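=== Structural record ===
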Amino acid sequence: MQRKTEQVRIIGGKWRSRILHFPALANLRPTPDRVRETLFNWLAPYIQDARCLDAFAGSGALGFEALSRGAKEVVMVDKSPAVIANLEENMRILNTTDALCINSSFPFKNNELEPFDIVFLDPPYHQGLIAISCHALMENDYLKDGALIYIEAEKELDPLPISNNWEILKSKQAGQVGYHLVRSSQNEPTVRK
């Protein structure tokens, strides 16, 4: 019996228009095409050769889009073994070894991970995971100074629970989603209330 799958299209870069399949699981919602297009327009000056972390990888839409557009490496994290197996299958289909898949809940501590230039945070909504994840990024030294963090959350999450010295560079809404691009700083990691 064939499992039900969904699909997502890579928008730009070397894999433009490639279709990736992913499992039809509850809470697995890829970033919509329109939002991804805006995000990667924002990231265009920074994506080339960047080390990226896709902390709640799900369909892999953000991680594979980043690789398609010139990122050097993407670490994709997801707690579902089925999702990780699917991400690894899509790596084979795209013939890439520039992604590392980690089967774990985020946040987690991994002393072997080098700091990242760009982080994608789009966790399940209404679970307080943005604040927890932002704190973990700082505490575990996962960010290069000045790293960019993409945050996708329920639009009513205001203010964003980020460090006081992080700067919101871009912010938009699409339907029920708020999405933001933030620049980090490693000084004085206090969180906004």
About this structure: Helices lie at 33-43, 61-68, 81-94, 129-139. The longest strand covers residues 143-154. The radius of gyration is 16 Å. Residues 188-193 have pLDDT under 50 and may be disordered.
